[in-house]
């Protein structure tokens, strides 16, 4: 791993519907965050600092020298050599409690536990700060057992190249679809590893959270666009209320888990060519215990707001292809909630950003852009069904990935791919080949039926679908058209023609792909009787 002077932990204020807009603050006696004014300057606001840690901070500054220090409202981070050392501040906010040494020890352990699942490359462990018999302080090693002589604790991390942060890569136009695919796979594996939870993220929780979002935007006044605030006050509840039954069924089905909770682009970094999410929420059950789709929605929103809809679409589709299904409340059905999930993520960013700007005596146009994005996510877009057919190697998936971001509401259409559905149903990893004998006419008919069933669920959720399958038989093409007619949605059929030699070369060159097609398969397919093809030919 290449290390640099960057830190993996510049945690910003954790602002959600449960967090106050006054939480973006500086701590007296430390470096002032440029986004905030010192506490003394905020008339009527409490300090939130409950313990003097100056002795520990001075010790670390001297012991770790030469060092670079970064101060946030909840931590002091020291960058020294190839490591970063994070001391949790002795503060108590309504949403974050680090007020006692015991509580800080607990939260350090929790931070390691949740983040080590996602970022073992970064998180090394918890190190104690001890007081010796002579009264002097000493720094232990990560994982060292702490006794009664421990006065505080540090989260110890590897440092990484800050230029690999996804927000910086996005700013340089350096994010790729392949990175999004890898991120979607990694997040899906993480979500699948988490145990289901109850008692969180139910219908009344959502109602309360949306009401808080609306109140915060209204209270922001002219710091945001009041007209947009009022439009969101109508649109957000309207987007939630019809789908509260899905919310309840998602909780019962196990969709609510202890998630990352803060999965925006600045909390994802490219390390050795792989995306690594880090800095997951450890201090709040209400913020982190959420629907897995709402967890993903932060990154989707962050990408879509910046006009990177193709990347957001790739991330969503890769996650949907790989996440374990919940039959009692499928992820396909949950797409009905995606507009309000995206809008909430953007709205929270809007009123938090406006509050921080007010503390600086500024107007934040970025906050207003988040507000406009929130309203845009709630703009109605009727579902449509697009089917792309063609023999193996004709470019169906390439075209599907190109078209999907431009179809329907953000972040674009869901791609239902027969190659993916076949392996999902068989419990086979997408990159692994199916067992011999898997491709029979009977099994293929079942896969086409499963694809149409899934497409129907997604369309009923109000989301557009792109079907990606060979569709060699006239009855298969007719079934796709019939689904659209039955649901009353517009249909477009596209058929891709390609020379046999080109198709064979393409499938021979594939690596780590869900398709098992070979040049021999292409040879057989070119002998099919395709019947009359009425779809638009390309």
What would you say this structure looks like, in words?
With 538 residues, the protein is α/β, with parallel strands linked by helices. It folds into three domains: 21-160, no CATH class; 166-377, Aminoglycoside phosphotransferase (APH), C-terminal lobe (Aminoglycoside 3'-phosphotransferase, Chain: A, domain 2, Alpha-Beta Complex), CATH 3.90.1200; 385-537, P-loop containing nucleotide triphosphate hydrolases (Rossmann fold, 3-Layer(aba) Sandwich), CATH 3.40.50. Helix content is 43%, strand content 13%. The protein contains 19 helices and 15 strands. The strands form four sheets. The chain has a six-stranded antiparallel β-sheet with strand order 1-2-3-6-4-5. A hairpin with a 2-residue loop joins strand 8 and strand 9 (274-277). The radius of gyration is 26 Å and the shape is globular. Residues 1-46 have low confidence and may be disordered.
Number of helix segments?
19
Structural class: alpha/beta
As for the CATH topology of the largest domain, it is Aminoglycoside 3'-phosphotransferase, Chain: A, domain 2
CATH superfamily of the largest domain: Aminoglycoside phosphotransferase (APH), C-terminal lobe
Please write out the topology.
Layout: H1 54-63, E1 68-71, E2 75-80, E3 83-88, H2 101-118, E4 123-131, E5 137-139, E6 150-158, H3 166-171, H4 177-193, H5 203-220, H6 226-240, H7 244-253, E7 256-258, E8 268-271, E9 274-277, H8 285-288, E10 289-291, H9 292-305, H10 309-322, H11 331-334, H12 338-359, H13 365-377, E11 385-389, H14 396-403, E12 414-417, H15 418-426, H16 441-460, E13 465-468, H17 474-487, E14 491-495, H18 500-509, H19 519-525, E15 536-537
Parallel strand pairs: 11-13, 11-14, 12-13, 14-15
Antiparallel strand pairs: 1-2, 2-3, 3-6, 4-5, 4-6, 7-10, 8-9
């Amino acid at each position: 791993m290449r290390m640099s002077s960057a830190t993996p932990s510049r945690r910003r204020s954790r602002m959600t519907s449960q967090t106050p807009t006054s939480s973006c603050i500086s701590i007296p006696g430390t470096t002032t965050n440029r986004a905030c004014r010192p506490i003394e300057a905020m008339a009527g606001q409490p300090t939130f600092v409950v313990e003097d840690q100056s002795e520990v901070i001075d010790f670390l500054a001297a012991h770790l020298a030469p060092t670079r220090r970064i101060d946030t409202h909840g931590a002091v981070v020291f960058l020294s050599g190839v490591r970063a050392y994070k001391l949790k501040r002795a503060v108590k906010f309504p949403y974050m409690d680090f007020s006692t040494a015991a509580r800080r020890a607990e939260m350090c352990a929790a931070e390691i536990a949740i983040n080590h699942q996602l970022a073992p490359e970064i998180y090394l462990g918890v190190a104690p700060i001890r007081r010796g018999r002579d009264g002097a302080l000493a720094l232990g090693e990560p994982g060292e057992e702490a006794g009664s002589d421990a006065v505080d604790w540090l989260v110890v991390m590897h440092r990484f190249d800050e230029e690999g942060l996804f927000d910086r890569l996005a700013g340089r136009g350096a994010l790729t679809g392949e990175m999004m695919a890898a991120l979607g796979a990694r997040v899906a594996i993480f979500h699948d590893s988490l145990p289901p939870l109850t008692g969180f993220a139910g219908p009344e929780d959502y109602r309360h959270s949306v009401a808080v979002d609306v109140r915060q935007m209204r209270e922001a006044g002219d710091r945001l666009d009041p007209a947009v605030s009022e439009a969101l006050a109508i649109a957000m509840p309207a987007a939630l209320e019809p789908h509260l039954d899905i919310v309840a069924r998602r909780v019962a089905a196990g969709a609510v888990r202890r998630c990352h909770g803060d999965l925006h682009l600045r909390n994802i970094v490219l390390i050795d060519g792989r995306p690594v999410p880090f800095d997951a929420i450890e201090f709040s059950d209400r913020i982190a215990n959420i629907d897995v789709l709402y967890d993903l929605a932060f990154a989707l929103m962050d990408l879509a707001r910046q006009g990177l809809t193709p990347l957001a679409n790739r991330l969503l589709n890769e996650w949907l292809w790989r996440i374990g299904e919940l039959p009692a409340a499928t992820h396909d059905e949950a797409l009905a909630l995606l507009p309000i999930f995206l809008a909430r993520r953007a709205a929270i960013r809007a009123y938090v950003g406006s509050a921080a700007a007010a503390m600086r005596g500024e107007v934040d146009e970025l906050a207003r852009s988040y507000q406009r994005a929130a309203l845009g996510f709630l703009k109605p877009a009727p579902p449509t069904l697009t089917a792309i057919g063609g023999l193996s190697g004709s470019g169906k998936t390439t075209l599907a990935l190109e078209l999907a971001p431009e179809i329907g509401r953000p972040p674009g259409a869901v791609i239902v791919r027969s190659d993916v559905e076949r392996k999902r149903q068989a419990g086979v990893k997408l990159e692994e080949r199916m067992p011999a004998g898997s491709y029979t006419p009977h099994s293929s008919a079942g896969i086409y039926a499963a694809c149409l069933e899934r497409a129907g669920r997604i369309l009923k959720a109000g989301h557009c679908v792109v079907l990606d399958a060979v569709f060699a038989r006239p009855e298969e093409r007719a079934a796709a058209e019939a689904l659209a007619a039955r649901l009353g949605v517009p249909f477009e059929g596209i058929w891709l023609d390609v020379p046999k030699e080109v198709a064979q070369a393409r499938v021979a060159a594939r690596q780590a792909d869900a398709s098992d097609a070979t040049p021999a398969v292409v040879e057989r397919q070119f002998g099919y009787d395709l019947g009359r093809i009425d779809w638009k030919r390309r």
